[in-house]
Amino acid sequence: MKNSWSTGALIAASLVALSSCATQEEMPPKPAPTPAPAAKAETKAPAEKTAEKAPEKAKATKLAGDVGLLDTEKNYMIIVTKEGKLVTVDFDPKFQPTQRTPTPSKIADIGLGSSATVQYTKEGDKNVATSIEYVPAKGE
Question: How far, in Å, CA of 92 to CA of 95, rounded?
Fold first, then answer.
């Protein structure tokens, strides 16, 4: 009888201990603070100031690595750099890449594992390819 009571108490204590570990309160992320409204004097800027603040052109970035993924339906590719960094680059479906040995090619000709050098510009939150040079993977 003592054995069944101690076993039951042990099981009950285990259940309480496990259930307390399983219930964890997750706090929702705090919303970003809203910026203070601008003063009316700032909204009426002279035309000269607005002309000075014309948006700059996006700077092209060059990247070298291997093609890790190529999606011709969604028009993007993932390049794996020598450091192991993954960079997603979007491209225009009509874009014509060039093989390092000059040969006409299409995006679909680039295979996984191909060595590629991509030049891209940042447009919003996307990296858009401006040029792609590649060497086909061995065996292609």
Answer: 5
Which spans in 45-89 are helix H? 47-52
Give the CATH number for residue 129.
2.40.50.320
Name the residue range of residue 82's domain: 61-135
Q: Could you list the mean pLDDT of each consecutive 10-residue stretch along the chain, which spans 140 residues?
A: 69 60 52 53 46 58 86 88 88 78 78 84 87 77
The end-to-end CA distance of the chain, in Å, is 76
Could you tell me if residue 131 is inside a domain?
yes
Distance (Å, whole) CA 107 – CA 139: 18
